[in-house]
């Protein structure tokens, strides 16, 4: 009876080892390409490479920037992972971030802003707004047959322009300044490490990771969601309402996107709402989710490495003559290699060179003698 759990554990570790080998190989190949590109585009290539590989961890300030990115990339990666687990391809996290940020801003600038309730109510309002924005494309697909990619992208544009309009017209500090009023200190996440941008957002990201993992792998809802993702028709035959599960997954992902909006505007990075504040980071969660294969516990790990690469690229762009677009080439190579079923050419032949020949048994020797 103990054989089945042992085989399952061996199979699980084999899969983990294969994924780690794939990711490490992809990173090494991408770094090799980076070296070649930097050598061709920079007048000081060694300085540029040194900046890329060491600058994010060189000072407490840059470490804070790195982990601030890690927290945000983790949350957006989890949001996309939930949608991808249901085999939906909604791209609405960016819009959910903006409506969540708007909701958190109105809480922070309301009479509740100077009170102790500003932070939890801001997060709650942001998650509720994001959940509604995630629900809309889900119900549009379930009831009207609307394509979730198109509807979610259109909702992104609506949310971004709505946010920009309100900042310019209603929430602006003064004419010509594209920011809202400053939030009260009680509405801004306290820093976990003084002098850095490491704040409550990192705790929220870790909590969201555990919550999403538990929901996916330890609840009946998560089992139904994964069944719908693997085979929606079979799930329907099994009595699972696939449309309900799909809409609920997009709504839950929307709540995460809304929370990310609160992390932006209530975090140490801003403490106010600005035009185009997220800088496209919400869309980068797609890359994190793909590399992590939509596995919640793998998302923070991928976010750590990708966040380091992202910060290194930005610092390399600021301090050297290498354009930041170079890192886009590196990122694309990593995604292509990790998400595809690639293998190293000649891998089997190389392994055969170092593999010891299997010892012959007595029966094999007798057979050969005959």
Structure description:
- This protein is 70% helix and 0% strand.
- The protein is built from 15 helices and no strands.
- The radius of gyration is 24 Å and the shape is globular.
- The chain is mainly alpha-helical and 370 residues long.
- The model has no long low-confidence stretch (mean pLDDT 84).
- It has a domain of 212 residues.
- Helix 1 runs antiparallel to helix 13 and helix 7 crosses helix 8.
Short description:
The protein is mainly α and 370 residues long. It is 70% helix and 0% strand.
Q: Report how far apart the termini are.
A: 42 Å
Strand content: under 5%
Instruction: Report the average pLDDT across residues.
Output: 84
Radius of gyration: 24 Å
Mind summarizing the main beta sheet? none
Order of helices and strands: HHHHHHHHHHHHHHH
Query: Any idea what the shape is?
Result: globular
Give me the count of strands. 0
Q: Enumerate how many helices there are, as a single number.
A: 15
Question: Which segments are poorly predicted (pLDDT under 50) over 5 or more consecutive residues?
Answer: none
Helix content: over 70%
Structural class: mainly alpha
Helices and strands in order:
Blueprint: H1 3-41, H2 45-54, H3 60-85, H4 93-108, H5 118-144, H6 148-169, H7 200-217, H8 220-230, H9 232-237, H10 242-266, H11 285-291, H12 299-319, H13 325-339, H14 347-354, H15 362-369
Helix pairs in contact: 1-2, 1-13, 2-12, 3-7, 3-10, 3-11, 3-12, 4-5, 4-6, 4-10, 5-6, 5-10, 7-8, 8-10
């Amino acid at each position: 009876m103990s054989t089945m759990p042992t085989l399952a554990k061996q199979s699980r570790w084999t899969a983990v080892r294969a994924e780690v080998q794939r990711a490490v190989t992809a990173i090494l190949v991408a770094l090799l390409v980076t070296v070649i590109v930097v050598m061709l585009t920079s007048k000081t290539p060694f300085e540029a490479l040194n900046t890329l590989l060491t600058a994010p961890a060189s000072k407490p300030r840059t470490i804070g920037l790195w982990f601030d990115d890690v927290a945000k990339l983790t949350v957006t990666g989890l949001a996309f992972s939930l949608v991808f687990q249901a085999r939906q391809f909604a791209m609405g996290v960016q819009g959910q971030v903006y409506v969540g940020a708007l909701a958190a801003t109105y809480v922070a600038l309301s009479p509740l802003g100077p009170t102790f309730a500003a932070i939890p109510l801001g997060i709650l309002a942001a998650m509720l707004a994001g959940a509604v924005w995630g629900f809309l494309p889900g119900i549009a697909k379930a009831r009207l047959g609307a394509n979730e990619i198109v509807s979610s992208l259109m909702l992104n544009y609506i949310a971004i322009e709505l946010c920009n309009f309100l900042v310019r017209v209603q929430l602006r500090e003064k004419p010509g300044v594209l920011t809202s009023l400053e939030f009260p200190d009680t509405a801004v996440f306290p820093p976990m490490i003084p002098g850095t941008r490491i704040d409550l957002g990192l705790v929220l990201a870790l909590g969201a990771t555990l919550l999403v993992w538990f929901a996916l792998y330890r609840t009946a809802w998560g089992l139904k969601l994964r069944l719908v993702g693997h085979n929606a028709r079979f799930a329907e035959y099994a009595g699972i309402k696939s449309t309900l599960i799909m809409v609920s997954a997009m709504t839950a992902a929307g709540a995460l996107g809304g929370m990310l909006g609160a992390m932006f505007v209530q975090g140490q990075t801003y403490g106010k709402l600005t035009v185009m504040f997220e800088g496209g980071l919400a869309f980068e969660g797609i890359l994190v989710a793909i590399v992590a294969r939509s596995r919640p516990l793998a998302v923070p790990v991928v976010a750590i490495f990708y966040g380091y690469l992202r910060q290194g690229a930005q610092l390399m762009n600021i301090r050297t003559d290498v354009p930041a677009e170079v890192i886009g080439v590196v990122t694309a190579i990593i995604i292509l290699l990790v998400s595809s079923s690639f293998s190293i050419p000649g891998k089997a032949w190389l392994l055969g060179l170092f593999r010891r020949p299997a010892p012959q048994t007595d029966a094999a020797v007798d057979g050969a003698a005959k």
